[in-house]
Amino acid sequence: MISNVEFFLEGGRAGILLIHGLTGTPKEMRFLGRGLHRAGFTVYGMQLEGHCGDEQDLLATGWQDWYRSVQVAADRLRKQVDHFFIGGLSMGAVLALRYAADFPERVSGVGVYGPTFRYDGWSIPFYARHLYVLLRLVKKLNLLQDRRFNEHAPYGLKDERLRAVVAASMQSGNSADAGLAGNPYPSLADMLTLAAGVRRDLDKVISPCLIMHALNDDIADISNSRLVERKVSGPTRMVVLENSYHMITIDLEHREVIRQSVDYFRQQIENRLRAAGDFSTVDEVLGRTPEAVTGA
Question: CB-side exposure of 1: number of CA atoms within 13 Å?
Answer without folding.
Answer: 1
